[in-house]
Amino acid sequence: MKYELPLQLVVQGILLGGVYGLIAVGLSLIFGVMGVINFAHGPMMVLGMYIAYGILVLLGLDPYVSLLLVAGALFILGYLVQATVVNRILDFPEAMQVLPLVATGLIIENAVLLGFGPDPRSPRTALGLATLHLGPVMIDVSRLLAFALAVLITGLVFLFLKYSDVGKSIRAAADNRVGALLVGIRVDRVNNFSFGVGAATTGAAGALLLPLMATSPHLGHDFTMTAFVVVILGGLGSLPGALVGGLILGVAESVSTLVVPATMKQVVSFGLLVAIMLFKPQGLFGGKA
Amino acid sequence: MKRLYVILGSALVVLLLLPLVLDKYLLGIFVMIFFYAYLGQSWNLLTGYTGHISLGHALYVGIGAYTSTYLAMNHNISPWIGMWVGGLLAMLVGLVIGFLGFRFGLRGVYFVILTISFAEISRLVVSHIPSLGGFAGIFLDFKPSFWNFQFRGNVAYYYLSLGFMVASVAVARLLELSRAGRFMVAVREDEDAAEALGVNAFKYSMIGIALSAFMTSLGGTFYANYIFYINPNSVLGMGLSIELILRPIIGGMGTALGPVLGSFLLTPLSEISRAYLARGGLEGLHLILYGVLAILVVLFMREGILVYLKKAIGPLLRLEP
Amino acid sequence: MKLLEVEKLEKHFGGLCAVAELSFEMQEGEILGLIGPNGAGKTTVFHCLTGFLSIDKGEVSLRGRSVKGLRPHQICRLGMARTFQIVRPFLNVSVLDNVMVGAMLRESSLTGARRLAQSTLEFAGLAELSQEKAGSLPLALRKRLELARALATRPEILLLDEVMGGLNPSDVDEMVRLLKEINARGVSILLIEHVMRGLMALAQRVVVINYGRKIAEGLPQEVVRDPQVVEAYLGREFLDAGN
Lengths: 289, 321, 243
Description:
The complex is a heterotrimer of chains A (289), B (321) and C (243). Chain A has 289 residues and is an all-alpha fold. Chain A has 11 helices and 2 strands; from the N terminus they run H-H-H-H-E-E-H-H-H-H-H-H-H. A two-stranded antiparallel ribbon of chain A has the order 1-2. In chain A, helix 1 (4-34) crosses helix 9, helix 5 (141-163) crosses helix 6 and helix 6 packs across helix 8. The model of chain A has no long low-confidence stretch (mean pLDDT 86). Helix content of chain B is 75%, strand content 1%. Chain C is α/β, with parallel strands linked by helices and 243 residues long. In chain C, helix 4 crosses helix 5 (139-151), helix 6 packs parallel to helix 7 (196-202) and helix 9 packs across helix 10 (236-242).
């Protein structure tokens, strides 16, 4: 019997880790292309959660169905944020880039607060309470679905970047902005698109998380930091690193509940974050430190 | 320059006389203006002058608030003394963070994340300590007396907070004119170039963070004894960390008057949004406004409103000889 | 008295060897040129000498005192000051305040530092611009500011990294004049330079490096005719064509 609980926790951790990976992929992409750290990433995810919530309540559509709508909405938001704000700060010293994005996150968080109020929402979804049994392990179907979809979306983003024309332009711009400009790539449009994709993935993650946890407007910061941990673990700018990092964090957080109260879980992730920054800032896959 | 001092001096006299004509509610607004100007200035000493950005400054507010409160409630130690204990503790923590950041070469964004991590870890840890009130926090007993740092009405708090604010402006100004301050600015502008000129960048960055942490935590003690309720979220949370940087950013980082100007501009906005749109549901509106303003300032008025104000109004008031 | 002694200096970046077994000396009062094609490792050498990069192997001594492992500000304090290839002025700070940062190294009082800064600015011909923000200066003046700033630290030896790069001929001549004057006042100069006009006018001796190794050393006129040096800069074909 002794291995059952840890095994359960590990599985839970992996499943949630997939979603963490999806959130982090967006952050990593944005950094990889624009060199900018999206401090509004968590609030954008929360916005995704609330949009999915709104659609569920108003139209009765389950988040797994409205996923594309949510992603689309966040894509537009991300595109606009890049076009209006971030494109102008690309050449600013790193320190000054932090502030507008923090401010953007502040705006999003409070817009959600104004729109939906401060109380946490925990809607019932069709698959909300269903569970599967795989041997000794009990799995929430919604968690499994979230994992599967998260990995799928991550895979799609990866393929898109590797094989599509737009994807190639994005990678070119990420690699060498001036060079890309010189060969005629509309780098500002590419940037807008990339931020849009980054925001869309995190919004999608929000939709996937809605059945799993109560939303509240102030969750944003926690998830921005979660995304940071994952991205720094896996290596800034590395997409496979984001996924792997997500899984590692998911498991670490989950397993830590064996020794630490659940509400202290985040101390584990922050501790991990500080440790990595001090000792291996390039992360596991050696991104651009 | 003399003319500027005359103008500031007159403004100060006006501020000193206001309690004679204002009611408790309005005085309370000024207390918040002065308080947030003070906090913002304390942050400014680190970020505005040495260039290391901290997004976890609430940590020091929390240390100040919890330390003086704990000592007062459990050991009957006056917050006037507890304030200094908190300050020293905060300074130590700041030095640890500074050491980790500056010695290990955590620059820019990594340093920001480091500061956030420390603040969040502290918030979570404190939430689990029963003797510090846990998640629910601590309600302070109202025992007004000078030694308890607690007063009836707002007049005393008004003068206290005004004193804090003026003192912080003086500290900033003295720093600007001092050797240490000049070295700090050099580090901000270009750390490597400064090192090449014999400036010990590590030392002056540490001075910056130590001073900043110390001063910020004094504000925490004030807060605890003014609001009478502290909890991990209100004094250690990201919300506070973000709120306290907005005024110096909008007013002007790296200047002695920037945070003050920023606070006079922003704090009344939050009061208006709180009072006139008080259905509770519109509580976040002022923060949206702050966010928009911050973005506009960073994009178009990078040095803050103060500098542009000086350029625009300066000639009118003939501030430059 | 040997002012600067570099012995078998080595610096690697991962698998790449940037500087290997580099040895040379500088005497007091010398102007030594350090030249080589792009990517030869000259700036890396400067970084190693001034503490911006750690030294993997070898020794660097200033007046017999090793500077290995010292931080840049300590090395500056010992008397070795440098400028950067791409100028790095404190942009938001006035010209005078820029130089004061350097001056404050040796002057403990602000008044003393200001006086030193002002006289240094006068010497460099920048006195009228002392209240201007450094960011508003054009390149040629920024280079002079960078020089003045380093000079204000009262160095014994000044390391100049392409201080004449991007200057027009008359600015180059002006810079040469300034540097000769600085040298006359007792400051030794080690300069990395591509601008031959300036180099030939100033350097008393020249060290040539390529791929991190010394390939020639001697009087300027000799060195520029050394076949190995010509090949390094212009390639084998040129050398062969000449024969």
